[in-house]
Model the fold of this input.
Amino acid sequence: MTKRSMLTLGATLLTLALTACSEKPSTPAATAAPAAASNEPVRGGQLVVAIRAEPAQLNPLVDQGSGAHSVRPALDSLVWDNGDGTYEPWLAARWEISDDASSYVFHLRKDVKFHDGTPLNAAAVKANFDYVLDPANKSTGSTAKLKPVATVVDEYTLSVKLGTPESSFLTLIAAPYFGILSKDQLEKDPKSLATKLIGTGPFKFDNWVKGQSLTYVRNDDYHWAPAKFHQGTAYLDSVKYVFLAEDQTRYNALATKEAHVVDYIPPEYAKQTKANADYQTQEFLLPGVGYSLHLNTRKAPFDQLEVRQALLHGLNRAEIVASATFGAYPVQEYLASTTPDFAKDLKNKIAYEPERAAGLLDKAGWTERDAEGFRVKGGQRLSSFIPYADNDQLAQRTLEQVQIDARKLGFEIKLQPVTDLAERLYNGNYGLLGSFQSEATGMQLWRLYGSDNISDGGTVGSNASYLRIPELDAVLAKARASGQAADRAKFYAEAQEILPNYAPSVPLYSRARLVAIQKNVHGVAWDNAWPQPYLFDTWIGK
Done:
């Protein structure tokens, strides 16, 4: 019996009750009801949250990865994303948007202060936009890629002109990776951004014990939460994030009650966790571009279209995903089905066609075989390599299955466990690069496949395939400038039809996020812009 068939046989297939909506991902569904409304919140206590990854550094204006999960307690955003295409005031009391989605004017609250005592005003918010605009800071976020130019209109009014129109701009700036930081910290002590945060949030940065935990304490001056939450200060005394990369260890923290909240329950424990009455569970399918293998077209053999298409159609994605995720995650196309502007009637779907894949490799000249059965051309083996984080068990399982399927095609794929995965995007040191981008907007297609997001030596691009597709660029530009939702959806649908023809990547799965919460914890809300747990209303019962 093959490794895959053994895994598949032993897997517990899970059904995700996930519903896609036309504009934003649906609200996570809880399998256990929160405390009754009559229960009075209890003040005090420390909430312990177990997460998979320790941030490389804390500055959210630079780090768009693990750091964004654990900085929200200290940082507020200009607007709150309701998750249904609507937004609520937060640091901005109101705003106006131009018809072409290129200019935004924000009218700020006048009663907000940073944790260092300085006021939130237009100059402070401008400093945040200036920071991401400066290429020296190497911000890789979506906001930076829009080249926003901010202008102070008056003390509490700010105008932002985008270098390129973007109709989903409010979604982008509602996310924790554009949480507003202190002007003084940005301008007078920028080096400190990596290790501490000075924001306006309901909790203040306390300490970071590298390799172990990140702690925040309550901000007793806080009184500017979005209107949908309680007003005043947070209920909790503090929030402590503990970094538990190993899946078993993270699950054990839930079972032993060492953690109140455990993010990303491993897929192999999903069914039993959801069935356990001791926990509340909330589960949803992350929007955006799921886990995909980006093919570096600057390196052979992926400079050949036929080779890219062969891998796209020669990998049995359904079996790979079922084996690697124990049936918990669904196979996806170029966008997750919960992403706004996902094409529900997509015609150019990715089909598993091994005979077609073999023919494509023959057409590309890879017709001979070496002693190990791998294809060769001109004395060179058809081979490439993929680095992955050495502590990412899911990635390892997935890539081992990819390696097995590729070998059937005569394609050698070497796996490289590394500790510098984030840097690989910067230097292009990969043949394939596995990654996923969770963001509640179809703009992710532009970020990952637009030619103006290719690294040019001066800025770091997010187009990991380095592929230029003029017809795709034209359609994406129309989508991003569309003020009407229907027009935007039409153009993003066209983009999804185009992508399989050029095969810049091989999409594998959409990631289902299962969060488990001890039953005495109440008031965990959801920050829909990421999305992730939001802890301002959270309290711990007796």
Notes: Residues 1-38 have pLDDT under 50 and may be disordered. The first strand starts at residue 29 and ends at 30. The chain is about 25% helix and 20% strand.
